[in-house]
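#data-curation
PF: Archiving a pair of folding outputs for the training set. Convention for this channel: one message per protein, sequence first, structure tokens after, nothing in between. First:
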Amino acid sequence: MHSVFLCDRLFPIRKIAIDSTPPLVFLRKNPLFLRCISSKSSPTSQHSLTVSCLINSSGLYTETATSASVITPISSKSSSNQDSYTVSYLINSCGLSPETAISASEKLHFETPEKPDSVIRLLRNHGFSKTQIAILVRKRPVLLLAHPEKTILPKLEFFQSIGVSRTDLARTLSLDPTLLTRSLENQIVPNYNFLKSVLQSNQKVVAAMRRTSWLFLQDHTKNLVPNIAVLRELGVPESCIILLLAHYPEAILQKHEQFSEIVTEVKKMGFDPLKSTFVLALHAISGKGSELRWNRCYEAYKKWGWSKDDILSAFRKHPHCMILSEKKITAAMDFFVNNMGWQSTMIARCPVVLFFSLEKRIIPRCSVIQVLSSKGLMKKDLSLSTVLLPVEKSFLDRFVTKYEEELPELLSVYQGKVDILEL
């Protein structure tokens, strides 16, 4: 026998004795349990007691408890019981895994379920799902000790009062519960007032919040205020600033020095600050992975025969064409070139068509054009913008309803109910 001193996360152990016969088993990152040595109990009964104790006090699954029972504690003090209760509660009431619950229990302790139950009940009453509550607790377990009526409820009510739906609020706060730890009066409301002064409506503030909750967490005097000032000095219209802040806030929330460099780069590329494409370009080349995205898109277009000038021309027309996925680019180009027989450079002159849904818009409309062309009812050199840009009603009026007498199946072709080969 040997004397060993351990400090375990779940069960503080001062001094233990280890039988030399069964080897110690270390279970990943789970807490270690040392098996008691007793001559008065049989190994079988001792093992059963150990498993039962682990399941009841720590909330471990049977399989996990059986594995962990190879080593169990001799004794534990009151703090151990408290830790055990906290872990059990986090597993059974919050949906955390045993390992996550043990980690979270290091940051909070409670002996009764009264306070955490009231927090969970409040969240459920405001539309949080079990999964969202589990995510929130995993990221900010100390919120279970918050006063629900004084700390959490006022923030939920405030965001709902400006138009944030329960669904969006639950999603946003579960992804980043930091917002619930900040002062409503000293941080959240002042940030809201500033955002409202720029965006001019609660609807736009809510739209921006859906994209990032950091709008309510940062000190805007450091980056956002000077970044907006840079745009205004260039004459960027307020409508374009609102577009950038409401829909692509991560671009304008960058550090001021970095943002200024990107603004200078976009100007050198020939973008007009008076047009919306200027702020879209700012967004397209912002962020940590912007250079990687640009290179990926650049190579994807080159494979389809676009020159450097073609790529830059497409970028100036629609900057977001340089943030599309390679899969999206390839699928659209393959259809236009190989199915429709169009020159790839046609797409470079109208890159907005790359953003349309292949299944819902491109294929149905192009199928109609193919049928009309095969019947001699339509010229084959129609422009992409003529076919794909009009709203659905305009397209149907011009290319489907107009020919319903000659081709009554045309609507079925558009709806995907009839294959064009059948005609």
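PF: Second:
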Amino acid sequence: MLTKVLLSSDVALVCVQHALSTEKEEIMGLLIGEVHNNGTLVTIVSSVILRRLDKKPDRVEISEEQLVQATLRAEELAAEVGRPLRVVGWYHSHPHITVWPSHVDLSTQSMYQRMDSSFVGIIFAVFLTDQSTKAPSVQITCFQSVNEGSNQSRREIEMEILNNNDSLLINNFETLTQLPAILKQEEDEAFNNEVSQNETDDILTKQHNAAVRTIAIGHIVDKMSRPMLEALVARNELNSVRLKTLKQQHQQMMVKLENMSCNI
């Protein structure tokens, strides 16, 4: 029985950024990792952001095609790093509502657990307000589904977020930077579907639909691309300072090593 999940900090960052991309509908993705200790421990090291086939405020769905694509991605990563990686779970968001899984979430989780008993679900509740500080907050829960006769209930799984220092760091960075493009694809698909279904619409309706798409893309730039760019620039500056400090320490150690050699 699964007892604990270790979540890479980079994957947590991708998931939270994805969850914060919209406060009107739920988002979703799949999680890639390893299973240890006879299925009692799961390590999550990468994520796959899924495009929503249908935007809904209260539920998300994963198609068989998306699951196959995520499985192929896991196999590619496994070959790159030489580790037995596979799809180990899924995540989705709860904007403006409690972090606890709904009956639909429990049903979805139960379905995947029948195929893999170690499969785990993670929910990111976003756009919440902390009542004590009145500041925005994010809540996270990790769970599995338990069947009790005809009813289903949640079983919370202990989760620990760890710093990720392995070779998958670059992959998670690329996943994060792909997020705005994936969100734009969703908007483009919604716009094209509307156009194809209503070819006889008048000019005002067409202008309205085009304006809605423009506003949506502007939202992506304002709420996702710009803050992400600013954060990456700040991170690059911090890494430059750390690199400079490490070079100074290396130089000092080399001087000490030379002095020790001369004294021998």
